[in-house]
Amino acid sequence: MTDSIFSKIIRGEISSHKVYEDDFVIAILDIAPLSEGHTLVIPKEPAETIDQLSDDHAAAVGRVLPRIARAIMKVTGATAYNLLQNNGQDAGQVVPHVHFHIIPRFPDRNEAIEGAPDKENGPGLRVTWKPGTLTPEEALELGKHIKRLL
Q1: What is the largest distance, in Å, between two alpha-carbon atoms of the chain?
Q2: How many CB atoms lie within 10 A of CB 62?
Q3: How many folded domains does the chain comprise?
Q4: 27: left (phi over 0), alpha (psi -120 to 50) or beta
Q5: What are residue 138's DSSP bridge partners?
Q6: Quick one: CA dihedral 84, 87, 91, 94, positive or negative?
Q7: Residues marked as catalytic
Q8: Which among 23, 28, 53, 125 would be 20 to 30 A from 6, CA to CA?
Q9: Tens digits of per-residue pLDDT, 11-41?
Q10: Rounded distance between C-alpha atoms, residue 84 and residue 72, angstroms
Q11: What is the structure's pLDDT at 119?
Q12: pTM, entire model
């Protein structure tokens, strides 16, 4: 695995604004936030994508994500949030270390949600979803192959 900026933050070589830390996970404020309270939740294990993460570290992240999201919502007054996690460069991952974005959303600042009022030059996350199709036959075949590997 590439030595990433998150690895350096975890080792204390680069400063950060920590909001949470335990033996398995660190959470820091994003230095280029999309909204007030934008936080990164990062497992300490050096894995690039979630499928490479051990069960213990994945479970630790799963335990703290809800707690951190609740705290962010309470502190910021956000009414909603996006939980974003990209795996691999083709999926938009920029830092090659597993991390989750908690991005608070506000009713008067929803410029980044598709269909909401748009503020051309404002920061934010653009969310679009263009669903495809899946036939019952395709679902049966694909599901069978996935189940076999689990």
Answers
A1: 52
A2: 11
A3: 1
A4: beta
A5: none
A6: positive
A7: 99
A8: 125
A9: 999 999 999 999 999 999 999 998 899 999 9
A10: 15
A11: 47
A12: 0.84
Residue 127 · residue 140 · CB < 8 Å: no
C-alpha 119/C-alpha 8 separation (Å) is 35
CA distance 10 to 20: 12
CATH number at residue 16: 3.30.428.10
The H or E element containing residue 101 is strand 100-105
Domain that holds residue 144: 5-149
Tokens of 124: 């934010």
pLDDT at 115 over 60: no
Show the CA angle centred on residue 88, arms to residues 1 and 59, nearest 5°: 75
Return d(Cα 8, Cα 13) in angstroms, integer. 5
First to last CA, the chain: 25
